[in-house]
């Protein structure tokens, strides 16, 4: 499919069938989804109807090439892959799907979950590599071009009378497949199609004696369709490229031997060998080996991460250094790349308000132009004694101006390009509605823990009082050894970094709300709160004042002490993420204000917010965050950024909920958008991309409507004719699509 009118034809025709509901057609993904009551309309009728409209249809092709599940229940959701039927001259592109007659017979396999068969990939992938002249549409261009050239040859080297008949023959032969589609669409209840208008214009031109121009228009129409197909296929290429990131084969290890298998056939629990330089074929967990893993194909993160046993890895990532043995944790259809592709494709259904408005406008626009063409053909000859042939000719040219293809494709082409551009950089947005809302946003709310901060406390200050730093850490680490408390883990990490050996400790026990005590070096020692240390007469006035000062800075302070003797203070804080301050600065430079919503106390919240340079609200329960989001949303759109789990209610309440997460299920499913690289700077990048997309859409709308307006006036005034009119239509569609493709090269990380 090359333009939105293709989707409209399919949607309208299928909605008229009994037992069919919720028909959705994705232009860029070439996918049909519908609810079907198979007892009222068999599946075969759906396929036949689509093929009659001139499109190939086959089982769904997922990123894992897994196909379409076809349940046997009466009312089911079905999904089909649409493309051009290469056996007919269609509105096609170089990546057509084979028709049932030419496709390989689908393999039927068991599907216990649904009790029905599943069809595997039924389309020859080689079709995607066809040159334009190998497609049905390309062959129509060649055929009509040869016919037109032959007619001109007859005109110049023989008689003009014979040439006239040659032009008539060229026109009729060239317009025949177009007329057939127009008739099918008319019978399906779709009277206003470009094929119908083209057929009327061509036949009308023959009747008024403009056979040569009619043949030229048919040829230009075919050329325009080829150009539309090439442009549309380029827009889809970036999405297909995501699927190519996952290798087709994997080295499976079984019973001590290694063999090459289809990567799509890997099942959970199997172990694969990934050699240095190879792409990882599955989502999994490292069982053996340590290596640098380049995750840029998945998350856009350019710096390789060192990963070892127990660490997760994503399909499509590149193993940079040493051999890894990986245990498969997700089936091919559920790996991160497959989910990203599915998200980008499904995002087409979340239509932007602008797209819905243009769709409604186009439904009025085409009939209005047809009505105007009728008036142009009749009124001047009747009221002003105009020449019938002249005004009928102008009316026919107006008909060709009436197709709104360029206008209708202006939004989905830009949206698809923006979604694909974002996906390559780990920025996932679920549809045009999200893009439009993000572009309008002037305020962003952030969760603190795990979003603006690292999510775990780190030691920020060591204040020795009665011991050296090394002695302070040795005692504290001995007491905290084995504890899983976040503060204990922070102390143990700092001790390890300082290369200090913890002192042996025994009889460790927790003092609820106070701290921990243990026997260290034959005497009792404590790691406890300043208040408890003061109660135990181990902390004097100077130590109390120093602890209070650090607590004012939003830090958590513990005292390490023995009987009536303080060894020192350890201050900890969940520190800001390295990129958080820069991310907030970029938002401010874009005119977007930021606010931090946190459940921490006001003192801690204020300390972090001051470092960031942003507003804050503290001591918030989850329901308080929702209330705060709704209050901000009342005065304009607001983006909420959180971890996708604890902040789910606030994410749902925001205009756009954004989940931070490295390819996790939650990050891909919970919110309206997801940032796979876990970078706060990507929030600004997402808004830049959304604004660029909306700017691109405005350009496309102005371009398509501007060209239509200009040629509508020049056609009525007789300054332009049929062949210019068809160039205006197809040319505008191509220009709009190519303009949308510029978003594929747009870098949202670069500040304007």
Quick summary:
By secondary structure, the protein is α+β, with helices and mostly antiparallel strands. The longest helix is centred in the C-terminal third of the chain and has 36 residues, at 681-716.
Kindly describe this structure:
It is a single chain. Residues 62-79 and 84-127 have low confidence and may be disordered. Among the domains are: 1-133 and 171-222, no CATH class; 249-334, Calcium-transporting ATPase, cytoplasmic transduction domain A; 458-573, Calcium-transporting ATPase, cytoplasmic domain N (3-Layer(aba) Sandwich), CATH 3.40.1110.10. The longest helix has 36 residues, at 681-716. It starts with a helix and ends in an 11-residue tail after the last helix. 47% of the residues lie in helices and 19% in strands. The chain is built from 24 helices and 29 strands. It is α+β, with helices and mostly antiparallel strands and 752 residues long.
Which descriptors would you attach to this protein?
6-stranded antiparallel β-sheet, 47% helix, 24 helices, Calcium-transporting ATPase, cytoplasmic domain N, alpha+beta
Strand and helix layout:
Elements: H1 4-15, E1 20-26, E2 31-37, H2 43-52, E3 55-59, E4 68-69, E5 75-84, E6 108-109, E7 118-119, H3 136-157, H4 160-187, H5 194-207, H6 211-243, E8 249-254, E9 257-262, E10 271-274, E11 284-288, E12 291-294, H7 296-299, E13 305-307, E14 312-313, E15 318-319, E16 324-328, H8 336-346, H9 353-383, H10 388-401, H11 405-424, E17 427-429, H12 432-440, E18 443-447, H13 448-452, E19 458-464, H14 469-480, H15 486-497, E20 505-511, E21 515-520, E22 523-528, H16 530-535, H17 541-552, E23 556-562, E24 565-573, H18 580-589, E25 593-597, H19 602-612, E26 615-617, H20 622-633, E27 638-642, H21 648-653, E28 656-660, H22 665-669, E29 673-675, H23 681-716, H24 722-741
Helix pairs in contact: 3-4, 3-6, 4-5, 4-6, 5-6, 5-10, 6-8, 6-11, 6-24, 9-10, 9-11, 10-23, 10-24, 11-23, 11-24, 12-23, 14-15, 18-23, 23-24
């Amino acid at each position: 499919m090359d333009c939105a009118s293709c989707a409209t034809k399919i949607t309208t025709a299928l909605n008229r069938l009994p037992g069919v509901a919720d028909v959705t057609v994705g232009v860029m993904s070439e996918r049909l989804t519908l609810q079907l009551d198979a007892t009222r309309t068999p599946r075969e009728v759906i396929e036949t109807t689509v093929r009659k409209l001139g499109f190939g249809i086959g089982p769904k092709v997922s990123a894992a090439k897994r196909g379409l599940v076809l349940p046997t229940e009466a009312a089911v959701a079905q999904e089909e892959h649409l493309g051009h039927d290469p056996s007919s001259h269609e509105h096609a592109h170089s990546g057509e799907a084979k028709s049932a007659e030419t496709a390989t017979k689908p393999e039927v396999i068991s599907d216990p979950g649904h009790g029905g068969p599943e069809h595997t990939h039924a389309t020859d992938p080689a079709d995607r590599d066809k040159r334009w002249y190998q497609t049905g549409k390309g062959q129509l261009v060649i055929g009509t071009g040869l016919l037109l050239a032959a007619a001109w040859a007859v005109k110049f080297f023989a008689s003009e009378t014979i040439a006239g008949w040659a032009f008539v023959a060229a026109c009729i032969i060239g317009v025949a497949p177009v007329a057939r589609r127009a008739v099918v669409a008319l019978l399906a209840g779709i009277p206003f199609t470009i094929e119908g208008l083209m057929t009327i214009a061509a036949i009308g031109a023959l009747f008024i004696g403009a056979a040569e121009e009619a043949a030229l228009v048919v040829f230009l129409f075919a050329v325009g369709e080829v150009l539309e197909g090439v442009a549309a296929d380029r827009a889809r290429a970036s999405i297909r490229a995501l699927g190519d990131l996952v290798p087709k084969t994997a080295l499976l290890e079984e019973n001590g031997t290694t063999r090459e298998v289809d990567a799509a056939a890997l099942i959970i629990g199997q172990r694969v060998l990934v050699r240095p330089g190879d792409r990882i074929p599955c989502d999994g967990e490292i069982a053996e080996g340590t290596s640098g893993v380049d995750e840029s194909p998945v998350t856009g993160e350019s710096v390789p991460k060192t990963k070892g046993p127990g660490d997760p890895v994503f399909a499509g990532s590149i193993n940079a250094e040493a051999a890894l043995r990986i245990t498969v944790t997700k089936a091919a259809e559920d790996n991160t790349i497959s989910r990203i592709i599915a998200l980008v494709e499904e995002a087409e259904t979340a239509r932007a308000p602008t797209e819905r408005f243009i769709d409604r406008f186009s439904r009025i626009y085409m009939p209005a132009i047809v009505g105007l063409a009728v008036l142009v053909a009749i009124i001047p000859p009747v009221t002003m004694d105009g020449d019938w042939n002249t005004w009928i000719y102008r009316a026919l040219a107006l008909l060709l101006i009436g197709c709104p293809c360029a206008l209708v494709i202006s939004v989905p082409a830009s949206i698809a390009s923006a979604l694909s551009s974002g996906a390559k950089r780990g920025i996932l947005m679920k549809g045009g509605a999200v893009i439009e809302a993000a572009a309008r946003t002037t305020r962003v709310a952030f969760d603190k823990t795990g979003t603006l901060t690292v999510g775990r406390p780190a030691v920020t200050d060591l204040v020795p009082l009665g011991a050296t730093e090394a002695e302070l850490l040795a005692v504290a680490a001995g007491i905290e050894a084995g504890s899983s408390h976040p503060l204990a883990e922070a102390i143990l990490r700092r001790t390890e970094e300082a290369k200090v050996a913890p002192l042996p400790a025994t009889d460790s026990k927790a003092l609820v709300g106070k701290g921990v005590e243990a026997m260290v070096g034959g005497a009792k020692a404590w790691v406890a709160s300043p208040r408890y240390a003061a109660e135990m007469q181990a902390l004097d006035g100077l130590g109390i004042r120093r602890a209070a000062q650090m607590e004012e800075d939003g830090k958590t302070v513990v005292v390490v002490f023995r009987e009536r003797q303080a060894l020192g203070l350890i201050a900890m804080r969940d520190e800001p993420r390295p990129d958080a301050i820069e991310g907030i600065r970029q938002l401010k430079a874009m005119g977007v204000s930021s606010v931090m919503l946190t459940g921490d106390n006001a003192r801690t919240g204020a300390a972090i917010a001051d470092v960031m340079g942003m507003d804050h609200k503290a001591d918030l329960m989850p329901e308080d965050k929702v209330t705060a989001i709704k209050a901000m949303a009342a005065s304009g759109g607001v983006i909420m950024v959180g971890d996708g789990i604890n902040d789910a209610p606030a994410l749902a309440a925001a205009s756009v909920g954004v989940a931070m997460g490295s390819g996790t299920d939650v990050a891909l499913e919970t919110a309206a958008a997801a940032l796979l690289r876990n970078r706060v700077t990507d929030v600004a990048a997402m808004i830049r991309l959304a604004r660029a997309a909306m700017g691109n859409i405005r350009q496309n709308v102005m371009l398509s409507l501007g060209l239509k307006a200009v040629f509508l006036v020049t056609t009525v005034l007789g300054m332009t004719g049929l062949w210019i009119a068809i160039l205006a239509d197809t040319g505008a569609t191509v220009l709009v699509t190519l303009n949308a493709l510029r978003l594929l090269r747009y870098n949202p990380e670069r500040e304007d």
